Amino acid sequence: PDARGFDNTATLATDAESGLLTAGIIHYLAMVKANKLGLIEHAQKTLDKTYPAYKIQLGSDFEVVVRRPIYTKSSVAGTATRGYLGYSIQGKRLVFLKDLWDNERNEFQLTEREVYELLIPCHSPHIPKSLFVGLVSNSKGNYQITRSQALAFSVWTRREHCRVVQEVYYPISELLSSKDVVCVIRDCLLGEYVFS
């Protein structure tokens, strides 16, 4: 089943777990309506009850409840990235979960996962705080990797199934004041300077 895409880290959420996610999204949307937070595009999609809620087990002690993704990237040969607004059961708050098939590391470039892992101990205030970064295991305890590159007549690289959980941040277009815009641009410039 693992080779056909079965994800043993995802189980159907209980009604109580699904309710936590729904309550978190409803509270967030109420804060947006009161002009206290910026709107994350497609956030309301998370309330779509035609999609079941799943509890994703990340590592041994981190669980996130998700429903419909707010971002998907469709491509035959891409990273199959999906972004979810989720609810952290342990953190008791909304989080952003990024699920992707990242390129395997080569001698020229770090993987996206490795970049996040390097940034976590820096405690930089200029980038979104990562709460979890890791590879997804299969039922045998090995990491999930693609096999399609063995069948390709091109230079496709092997990909690893990776998940990143971060604090929720908002698009710059949704900032509520010019002061916030200036602060974000400052943070971007400082982040670029510090990590270049």
Describe the structure in your own words:
- With 196 residues, this protein is an alpha+beta fold.
- The protein is built from three helices and eight strands; from the N terminus they run E-H-E-E-E-E-E-H-E-E-H.
- Strands 1, 2, 3, 4, 5, 6, 7 and 8 form an eight-stranded antiparallel β-sheet that branches.
Short description:
With 196 residues, the chain is α+β, with helices and mostly antiparallel strands. It contains three helices and eight strands, in the order βαβββββαββα. A hairpin with a 3-residue loop joins strand 2 (54-58) and strand 3 (62-66).
The sequence of SSEs as H and E is: EHEEEEEHEEH
Let me know the average pLDDT.
Answer: 80
N-to-C CA distance: 42 Å
Query: Which structural category do the helix and sheet elements fall into?
Result: alpha+beta
Note the main sheet: 8 strands, antiparallel
Q: Count every beta strand, where a strand is a DSSP E run of 2 or more residues.
A: 8
Shape: globular
Strand content: 15-25%
- Parts with pLDDT < 50 across at least 5 consecutive residues: none
For the CA atoms, what is the radius of gyration?
18 Å
Q: Please, how many helices?
A: 3
Proportion of residues in helical segments: 10-25%
